[in-house]
Structures are given as structure tokens and as C-alpha cells.
Amino acid sequence: MFVIPGSADGASMIFARREVEALQRMGVNSRTFYLSSRTEPKTLAREWRRLRREISTFNPHLVHAQYGTMTALLTVLATNRPVVTTYRGSDLNPAASRSRLISALGKALSRMAALKTTRIICVSPQLKTRLWWGKGRASVIPSGVDTAIFKPRPKDAARAELGWSPGERIVLFNGRNPRVKRLDLARSAVEHASAMCGKVRLEVLDGTADPALVPTFMNAADCLLLTSDWEGSPTVVQEAMACNLPVVSVDVGDVRERLDGVHPSYIVTRNPQDLGEALAAVMAERVASNGRAAAKSVSTDRTAEQIMSVYKLALKTRQNH
């Protein structure tokens, strides 16, 4: 059974839902429990009881919490079956979008859940270092990308679909959490790039676009920009790679590892001028990257195989006890 915070609709945790689909294609018989709240005490008590009923009814071999904080803690408290928890970033990293108290509480809940979790998945090596307990039970498996959905298309056709001008210079930015993703820094970088190469437009994905259109945005843009203070394994980078979209990023999460050998793509400092220069360099070339070849190593099918190995370890651990 998968436990995912939020709902089955929209873009929230869509990467987790795609991971579930990949595991189902491998033959995993599963059911998904969507946790409707992680903060309201009465709702949490009701959801805990509902989760226990769902687990009892479905009778799974193991339960997989797809996020830390209250999602993971509620899961380990709801069952004695083997539990796998995936930590994805803001559940262990600082979260500028929340108060210091709420962020600290979330990290504390994540670490408490790790004490009772059978096996742990961290989406980047950096995230694994933030565990206090359970590092010996932790595997590093990056976020996967569905390469059947995210694939190269002619730029002109993608732009025509979105109504974009063929001659525009367009930088794509994932801005669903503006403070964490550093929208302010992205805007400054684009201003510097515009001063060097002519007008550059920043296209911000704020979570309101239909998820089915995101591959079209990837193929219509000239570059993806990532300026986050903290990340786990940013799925948006893998998606851009799968579409052969060049990436300009700060050194965050596992981006350096993902972009190794990918050209044209740049990892630079958080200085707006350095970011702007890298963007201008991409605009000067205006060519596709070779990212898709590298993205195959983190396709959802490939990461699903690695997750299956973790499941086997979790079941073996329980049998030995």
C-alpha cells in the first residue's frame, strides 16, 4: 500500500503517482491511500483510523510512505507490517516556505519515523546525510522521470500549441514554492541575461497548468532554470533532460550528478550575474541538449527496479525478525 500526502488530482506529488504506476507495470499489486491532512489534529486522528482500516482490508505485504514528516510517522504508527519511507527533500531539508518552528517540527517527525521504518529511500546522497538514525537502512534512489511522457518534440510545434512566438527567448522555471525555489533570484538572473543577449522571458510553472501540458512547455522553452536553496532530487531537471532541454542550475540536491556529461547545461553559483551569463550562453547556442541519453538511467522503469530491490530487503528483514 502506498501512502501519499494530498489528493489524486492535480500536479501535487505527481512524481510519486508516476512511480506507483511504474511499479504496477512491474507487477506490484497495490492500493494508494491519499492522506488528506498532515496538520489538523482531528483530521489526523480520523485519517489514522482510516489508514488502519485500509491496511487491514487490503492486507499488503508492506506499506510505502511516499514522504516524510507526518505522512511517514502516521504510517509507521498505523501498522506493524514492514514500512518503506521515501524522503524527498523538504521533509529533511530546511523549508523557507514554512516558519522555523514548523520546519523543525517536520524534520523531527521525519527522523522519528525513521526509527521505526524498515527500509529508507533518500532521493539524493545529500538527503541521506540529514538522517539522524537509519543511515545503514537507507538506499539512495533518485526521483524518476517517465521517458514515455517526457520526450523530445519539435520546438516550433510545441510553441504553436502554446501560442508562443517562434523567435522568443524563453526560460522555464518551476515556481510552485517561490521562496524555496528562489523566484527572486531567477528573475534577477533573467534580467542579467536580457542585458547580454536581448529580451528573455521567464515562464513560471506555478502549479496551475495541466500536468499533461508540462512536456509541451519543456519542448517549447530554450532552457530550464533552477535556483533553489534546497532540493532533494528535483524531478523537473530529469524531465528537462528527457526532453533534451538545456539546464542552468545552482549546485543543489543531486543536480551535479544528473547533469554530468549533459551539454549544453551549466552549474554555476547563486550570483545573478553568473546565472545570467550561463543563460545567455544557452541562448546564443539555441540547440538541444544530449540530456535524454543521461535521463535513461533515472527513468521510472529503472528506478522502479531499484525500489523493488528495497522492498525485497524490507520483507527479508521482517522475516529474519
3D structure, described in words:
This protein is an alpha/beta fold and 321 residues long. It contains 14 helices and eleven strands. The protein has a six-stranded parallel β-sheet, sandwiched between helices. Strand 10, helix 11 and strand 11 form a beta-alpha-beta unit. Helix 3 runs parallel beside helix 4 and helix 6 packs across helix 9. The mean pLDDT is 93.
Strand content: 5-15%
Strand order of the largest sheet: 2-1-3-4-5-6
Helix fraction? 40-55%
In DSSP terms (H or I, runs of 4 or more residues), the helix count works out at 14
State the end-to-end distance. 21 Å
Largest sheet: 6 strands, parallel
Q: What gross morphology would you assign? A: globular
pLDDT < 50 stretches: none
Rg for CA atoms = 20 Å
Average of the residue pLDDT scores = 93
Count the strands?
11
Structural class: alpha/beta
Return the string of H and E elements.
Answer: EHEHEHEHEHEHEHHEHEHEHEHHH
What is the fold's blueprint, element by element?
Blueprint: E1 2-5, H1 14-25, E2 32-35, H2 41-58, E3 63-65, H3 69-78, E4 83-87, H4 100-116, E5 119-122, H5 125-129, E6 138-140, H6 155-162, E7 169-174, H7 178-181, H8 183-197, E8 200-205, H9 214-220, E9 223-226, H10 235-242, E10 247-250, H11 255-258, E11 266-268, H12 272-285, H13 291-295, H14 300-320
